[in-house]
Every structure is written in structure tokens, then in C-alpha cells.
Amino acid sequence: MRLKVKKIFFVFLLILSQFTFAQDKRALEIEDMFRIKRISQTTLSPDGKFVAYVLTTINYDENKGTSDIWIYDLQNGEHKNLTNTPYSENSPYWFPDSKHLAFVSFKTGTPQIFKINIEKTQEAEQLTELSTGASGPVISPDGNLLLFVSEVYPDCLNDECNKQKESEKESSKVKAKIFDQLMIRHWDSWRDEKRSHLFLLNLKTKELTDITEGSIHDVPPIALGGKLDYLFSPDSKEICFVTNTDKMIAISTNNDLWITTLDGKVKRKITTNQGNDNQPVYSPDGKYIAYRQMARPGFEADKLDLILYDRKTGKIQNLTENFERSVEEVLWLPDSKGIIFSADNHGRRVIYKIDISTKNITTIYDKHWNTDLNISNDGSFLIFNQSSVTRPVDIFKLDLKSKALTKLTDFNDELLSQIEMMPLEEFWSPGADGVQIHNLMVKPPFFDPDKKYPMVFLVHGGPQGAWEDLWHYRWNPSLYASRGYVVIMPNPRGSTGYGQKFTDEISGDWGGKVYIDLMNAYDYAIKNFSFIDKNKTVAAGASYGGYMMNWIATQTDRFKAIVSHAGVFNTESMYGTTEELWFVEWEFKGTPWTNRKLYQKFSPHMYVDKIKTPILVTHGAFDFRVPESQAFELFTSLQRLGVPSRLVYFPDETHFVAKPQNFKLWMTEIFNWFEKWLK
Fold it and tell me: What are the structural domains, with CATH classification, of the chain?
């Protein structure tokens, strides 16, 4: 009896200690986004002994991040900062000896490529000195050649010409821009006269060759490219690259694969598909080039299939025609008999393997969000980056035989141990036509099921995108939850990771089935989760999510307040000011003058007089995807209608709010807006 009492007392103490430990934690803060060290661009050395990666540290006071190249020794578990400079370095690429790394540094003021010995403490050797800069280093398998890209004037045949033109441009008092054709700007920058060219540097002779000399076409293409769109063949004698040679790229998604000799004089296009082809990867035995393909021209969210090109016969075969997901990263097995690839599935980025002879696909790893895939030279293990809703990126090693998973980095462990975050949950709700809709949910820290909590309803952008089990630095559900909200994140029609038919069903129907999917998800959550206060719900979204905020405001009064960031308000004026015309022409089945009824049918500005919900409008000046005029039109209309509204305008931001101090202001304004209207 005495032993039983002692046991019960011990269990009580254990539970109490866990409760006390939990209460010692705190909620996630906006400032934590700047305290977190950010890992990216992870790459495994050819001998499988070292992992190189980029570690970015945010300096809030200086309002910027600084990146360094680090390596991890898989043999002794040690991390080492290779660069450790006040300048930012990125894009590590291994030499075949596994002792040297190429990387990009801003040490000279312009990006240039350097080489460093990972075993010796010595200053890095500068490999490029172009006035136009150099980025994206790729080393040939024999270690003698370097591929990189630089934005140059197409008619310049040497760097002196580029330097002179740039000098004349900078010194001129006239800053006018003159264009004869689209596109005139992209994402956040004006196109001007320069184009991205592919260069080859012979590391022995120092001879520099512009592989795409005189070309007005960008390598890599300006949009819809793969992870890497230029590389050497295994014998270092051939180069494969991706470009779009159509005359008007504003309406074209026709990226193609080209192969060329090392001098760039003999080029040949090897893809004839009118859709998007990208991310070529040579098989280790040199027999094949694997790449990704979107079949339908003009559609940027078509399914990406894995295609195999036989270099000897020119025969092409689709390896994933019966696979319902879109291929992301592509990685050959060392024996050239199979391919490792990733694909999005139900909010996760899953790792798969395909046998190229049978097309049989097996799942290797299906948890969380996995990127930057690498495989050891003996095919025994994978190295990759992984994040989740509750954890920023760490580097992991997966043993392919035992399936043992090992976390290799711990930069953020101490910080995260202080923070209480709730795990990701999910549920399904009935959408339009009875189709089931997948929803993600994050509860507030220190959640009490007997309490009532306000709800934040988040709508993702794209619209061909999704909410996923990953760590996001702008739309972080755990950060919203930290303010005491239940966060609901639906993946309605148009979302990726649920099959191409599901993705397709938003095109031409922006405010139709997807709106029903969303509102049904909202109603389902209100009805089935007693801890949600149905009288205190708010909504937010960006890009297409911002569009949906504007559309929702014209259709329902379910929400107490709305935040619309970078949202489309007037679909017709959006067409005339955005840059990638293929997108709007596909989504609205033509131009405003050929299909005006559809543009107007789903344009929030046509129904703006119906809006009663208070709206916070936020936007960046250098957003050329959804131009700032959309925010101005919306805010002007709301003010004239007397709808409670507020405009937060960032003259130094793009489609995203990225600068640390701007981000803090943005999130503070969002939280204050919600709290104001939930009182």
C-alpha cells in the first residue's frame, strides 16, 4: 500500500513538473522571427563527408540579414563558419575534390564568385571580376570549368563595353525608360536593356566565354524555372540550359531545354513541347537527361511531370503520367536506375523514389516540409532541409536502409525551448459539389479546451498554392496563434497537392466554388469546434488571398475585420498593370476586351458598395505582380463609402513585406486592427 502511495505521489510530481515547465514557456513573439537563424541552400560534398549550407542572421537594428557559408562534418559532428564576414555569401557549390567550395560574395560591392579551401584557414580566392557581377556558380565534374550567370547588355562583346554603358547610364541626367515590347518589368524590377547570360570560365586558362553571346533571351528564364536550369554533362563536354526564346515572354510559358558545346557555337533545342520545360538533370552514367514538364502552354500551374530524354536516340518518355502530384526537386540515384524526387501532398512536401524501368513509385519520407535534397555517392543516405509549422529549417540525414532520421543542426534549439507552440492539426469539410476540403488548424499556446477563443481565418495566395506544414516567415500561423487566436487555414479549390483536377477548378471561377469551399470550411469550424467564439472571427490573406479578402467582403458579413495584403481589387485594371500576362489570360480565359463579362463577374470592385466589414489594406510600392494601384483603388472606394478602413503603404517593399522593421510594423498593425474590432 505504501509503495502504491509513493508511486501515485511520484506521478503527481511528474505531472506537476511538466505543467510548471510548460508555464515557464512563453508565446511566440514578432521579435522571435528576427532571433531565428535561417538555414538554406544545403548541399552535400561529392565524397559524402561534409554538408555546406547558408546560415542567415537577422540584424533588426540594421534592418537586414547577413549570410555566411557554413559546413558540417558528418564524421565528427562539428559545424564551422567558413566565411564569417560582414558581407553576405551564398550559393555554395562543391568542387569534385570535396575540399573546395565555390560561392558568391558581395565583398567587392557587386556579387562575384570565390573559391575557398574548407581545410585551410586562408582568404578565399576571387574567380570572377565582371563589372556586371556573377552569380549561380556550377562547377564541372572534372573541376576545371565554372558556369555562372551575369546580367549584361546583349550587344556588348566584352566587359569593358558593359562597364562603359553602365557608367553612361548612371551619369546621365535623363532617367527615362523606353520600350518597344512587353515585358517591361517583372516582380520588383524594371527589365531595361540587360539580359541574364550564361558564362563559362576555364579555371586553368582563365579564358571567359559568353555561352549566350548576343542573345536577348535570359538564362535562366525569368520565370517558371526549376531549382537549377544550367549544368554540365557528366563528362564535362556538354552544357544543358533552359531559356524562353519566344518573342513576347509576357504571354509565354514556353521554357525549353537546350544543349550546347563548351564554346557556345553549336546549340540545339531538345524539347518541342509548347509548355514549360525546366530543371534538367543528367544521369550519372550520362545516358539520360531527366527534366520537368508542364504540358499546357500559357498555364503556370499545370502538373509538372518527370520526363526522361535519351541522349543517344532523342526518345522522350513521361515517367509520372499516372502520378497525380506535381514533381518538385529531381535527384538521380548513383546507379542511374532510379530518381529521387519530391512532390506536394496534402500540405506536406514528400520524398519519393521512382524506378525508371518500371515507373514504380514508392514513398521514402512523408512528414513535414522537405527541400534541398542530396544523396550520398554510395546511395546510402539523404541529406535535406526540413521545417514544420512549429519549427524553422534544420538539416536532416535520412538513412535509406534503416529509415533512421537524424537532425544535424541545433542553432535555434535553445530559443525554441522557451516558446510554447501547439502542434498542427487538420480536418476535412464539405466543399462545393460535395468535394472534401482539407483544412489545417493551429490552436493558441497554453490552449484550454473549456475556453472560447477568437478565430483567424487565413486564405493562401497563388491561387495555385497551399497552406503547408512548414515554417513561414511572413504568414506564420504560430505567430497568429500566439496572440490568442485559433488559426484556420483551408486549402480550397485551386490548392496544390490534391491532384491537378482540384487545382484546375479555380481557373475562370475565382469567386465561385472556391468561395463556397472557404465559407463551408468556416461554417464547419464554427459548428464543430466549441472552443471557437463564433462572434469573434477575423480574416486575412495576401495576393490571391488578398483578392479573396476583397471578394469575401462583398459577399458576407461573417467577419468582424479583414486584412487585405497585395490583393487584386479590379481585375480589369490589374490586367493592364501586371507583368506576367499569361497568368491573367489563363485565369480569366482571355483579355478584358475578349472576355469582359468574366473579368467583371468576379471583380470585387463591381460590388464594392456591398462592403460593410472594416478592412486594413497593406501594399508595397515595388509590387509589380499586383501593382499598388489595386490598394489605392480599394482604399479610395472604402473611404468614399464610409467603410472603416486603414492603408499601410510600404514605399520600400515588394509583393512581400521582407525588411525586419517593416515586418514588425506590418504585424503590429494587423494585430491591432483585429483587436480593435473584436473588442
Answer: 39-127 (2.40.128.660), 420-678 (3.40.50.1820)
